[in-house]
Amino acid sequence: MTDLLTLNHVVKKFPVGRKALFSKERKMFTAIDDVSFTLGEKETLGIVGESGSGKSTLARCILGLYPDAEGEILYKGKDVLKADAKELKAIRRDVQMIFQDPYSSLNPQMTAEEIVMEPLRNLGGENIREKARETLSLCGLSKAHFGRFPHEFSGGQRQRIGVARALVVEPTLILADEPTSALDVSIQAQIINLLEELQEERNLSYLFISHDIAVVEHIADRIGVMYRGQLVEINDRDSIMENPRDDYTKKLLSAVPPMDPHCK
């Protein structure tokens, strides 16, 4: 398997306190602490951890939104942290993101069709209306949905729009940041199934971020566990689920409810 994404000793710190931005001796909070891993082509790597563990910050580092991060973030061999504006634009076309909240992440003044057309307008593309409609259809929405606004959709339908928006520019890597956490369990399964179908059809790679290790188990080939900014364990899915090594991973697994509610 060819490595698509490689992180080497990535560190991201934030200033702490009101005067932090102007103080010469700033106190710093380390949100990402020496994180290293690889992600292969057509692979899904699940990153799991509690709120505040650094998962979303990690995704933003990969997108190049924190150029002051330390270490290396290599996408197809190109260091995101050293890329210029033109190079970053090309990377961001190839690396897209699905956001956690399927309502607040959509512009309420734009129709579903317009939302999916927007990345093509920003990053370039031809026949953008036709391509947006094709992508919405691929994600399970019908022609009757194209002209509707976000408030007219259910949570699951809104997230399908979010998936279509990420997919429309034909990326290679999708960063899915808690894409199912705001959805009912039955709808979560539908979105997971959709992502798996799209991966097979489009040869996609996923970095799938979640606080729920049971959800990650269903989609990931490998799982990485984050705690207080550190990647405390990473291994193939079965090894993590059946034979975890880190104490924090064991605690995450112990919190997963049994499939049979009568089990003790």
TrEMBL record:
<protein>
    <submittedName>
        <fullName>ATP-binding cassette domain-containing protein</fullName>
    </submittedName>
</protein>
<dbReference type="InterPro" id="IPR050319">
    <property type="entry name" value="ABC_transp_ATP-bind"/>
</dbReference>
<dbReference type="InterPro" id="IPR027417">
    <property type="entry name" value="P-loop_NTPase"/>
</dbReference>
<keyword id="KW-0547">Nucleotide-binding</keyword>
<dbReference type="Pfam" id="PF00005">
    <property type="entry name" value="ABC_tran"/>
</dbReference>
<dbReference type="InterPro" id="IPR003439">
    <property type="entry name" value="ABC_transporter-like_ATP-bd"/>
</dbReference>
<dbReference type="GO" id="GO:0005524">
    <property type="term" value="F:ATP binding"/>
</dbReference>
<feature type="domain" description="ABC transporter">
    <location>
        <begin position="5"/>
        <end position="253"/>
    </location>
</feature>
<dbReference type="InterPro" id="IPR017871">
    <property type="entry name" value="ABC_transporter-like_CS"/>
</dbReference>
<keyword id="KW-0813">Transport</keyword>
<dbReference type="InterPro" id="IPR003593">
    <property type="entry name" value="AAA+_ATPase"/>
</dbReference>
<keyword id="KW-0067">ATP-binding</keyword>
